[in-house]
Each structure stands twice: as structure tokens, then as C-alpha cells.
Amino acid sequence: MHEFEYLRADEVGRAVATVAGDPGASYLAGGTTQLDLMKDGVLAPDRLVDITRLPLGGIACDGDMLHVGAVTTMEELAADRTVAERLPFLRQALLLGASVQLRNMATIGGNLLQRTRCRYFRDPAVSACNKRLRGSGCAAVHGAARMHAILGASQHCIAVHASDMAVPLVALDAVVRLLGRHGERSVPLTEFYLLPGDTPDVENVLSRGELITAVEIPLLAPETRSTYLKVRDRASYEFALTSAAVALRLDGGVIGEARVALGGVGTVPWRAPAAEAVLRGAPAGEEAFTAAAEAAVVDPFTVEGTAFKVELAKRTLVRALRTVTAGAP
Ligand code: SF4
């Protein structure tokens, strides 16, 4: 592994100044992705700034908003009572997203910034990867690509966004709080990630040294039903082939509010506003569910290995909608 200097940050502003002023520096939180990539030679920072002792943890409820510090662990968030009661599909996504050992290490900010699982990205022996080296090509487009994206993809990159947690978060209109050398700002999670286009190495709107400090999550109304359905090749320790996060409010069998997002198929966590528009005001049933699924998966970019995901993504959403409405009066 490339040698690096380890620094434990003792103040948020100094940590930001350090990373912003040094192109070789990176933040270190739980390290569950970053250390793997360093051992594999994909990442080679000269300096790691450990932010886990900074006062950026904790969960606080303020009215209908949950404030989650960036170094809160996945397990802490999954165990939170408000999450269990008001954001059940987020809890499901957290529990399905990693083993308990990983959940105890991995942070919420780190989860949002986790790197792709694309095998070509993670293998420095593969030279063609635009995400590692812009302009080098994309080995996945002509290679084995079963786990790759069909939405938001381009011929330059079809890497899928791997986070389960981010899928219900985009459905909820969560907002990330950022701190950089020029101050604080808030960015909706739906605008935080960037599509690959011809620059897949640029994955989000963060500027050099900018740090996620917190995530603001609107709570669902108590009467809202929600579910997170994850389809994968085996029942645990596996990433999603497809997933669907659905939250619906029903009023006498008619759908009022609808929130829908897909995972495992997008280069970014994939909000599906067209599907939500189909569902809103429709009687809860197969006709609306099927129409919503058709609206959710439009203009897919497929390669040989990923073509099956078009149908699977639609069926995943239909099944999630059936599940969330089952037994409704
Ligand atoms: Fe690299 Fe993206 Fe192609 Fe994977 S899909 S090889 S990450 S450019």
C-alpha cells in the first residue's frame, strides 16, 4: 500500500482547511470502502484526515425533520426509534445494506460517498476505466456487466451507485449539509450526484475539501406506508441487482402522496418522479402499479449483461407497490 500520513482532526474547520489545501489529502471516516481501495492500489492518498472524533455525530429530531450527523454510523441510524416509527423503509435499506459489523463502522456521510463496486474500477490492472482515468475508456461496456447501471448511464461509464440507504433518502427529498473553505451550504440529495456523461470521474458537486457534515431527512407522515425491496443474487452480503423504495399515503384506496426511487439500476440513486405522477390520485391496484413501472424505466442504456434489468426493475417496483398497499382498507 502507498505510504500515507495519518492525522486525527480535532476541529472541523482545521480539517476542512487541511484537505482543501492539499490535493493529496482525503478524509477518513469508517474506512469500510476507502481502506479496501487503498489496499487494492485504486486510491493512494498521501495524507488521511480522520474525522471520526469530530462533533459530527448524533441524531436529533426537530418537528418533522431528522438531523443526522455525518459520522453517525449506519447501525446507530438503523437503531433510532424515530427512524423505525417514521422512516421504516430507510431502516430496511440500512439493515439490508451491510452486515452488522460494517454497519457499526460505516458512517452516513461515508455511505453517501461510497465508490462504485464496478470490478474494472477496482482492478488497477484494467487500464480502461474512465472513472479512474478520464479518457481511458470503459471496460464494462464490452465486458461482464451484470451488476451495472441502465439508467443515467453513458458509453463512457455504466457504473451503478451502490448505496441502498441513498435510495429512500432521494425519495424523501433529503438534504446534505456541506462545509467547505468558503462556508456552509445545503444541497438536495437529488442534486448532489452527477450523471457520468463524458466525465464519470466527477461523481458529485463537492468542491476540493468540502465535507458532508449532516443529512436533513424529512419524516414521513405517521399514516404513510413505506417499504424498501432489494432484489439480489443471494440473501445477504450482496449488492442490489435492483431495488425500489416506495412511500405511499392512501386515502380510501386512492393514492395521495407517492414517493418512488430505484436502486441497483442507476448511475445515481434514481428518483422516479414520472412514476410518482402516475400513482398520485390513482386507485391503488395493478393498473396503476404497472403504469408506474413503465414510467419509472424510460430510455434505458443497456449492454448485453444488463438488458435483463429493464424488466426486473419494473417487476421490482410493482412488487414493492403491492407490498406497501397489501391489507390497506
Ligand atoms: Fe470504469 Fe465506469 Fe466503465 Fe466501470 S463502468 S470500467 S467504473 S468507466
TrEMBL record:
SMART domains: CO_deh_flav_C. Pfam families: CO_deh_flav_C (PF03450), FAD_binding_5 (PF00941). PANTHER family: OXIDOREDUCTASE, XANTHINE DEHYDROGENASE SUBUNIT C-RELATED. One of its GO terms (molecular function) is oxidoreductase activity. Keywords: Oxidoreductase. Residues 1-222 form the FAD-binding PCMH-type domain. It comes from Sinosporangium siamense. This is FAD-binding molybdopterin dehydrogenase.
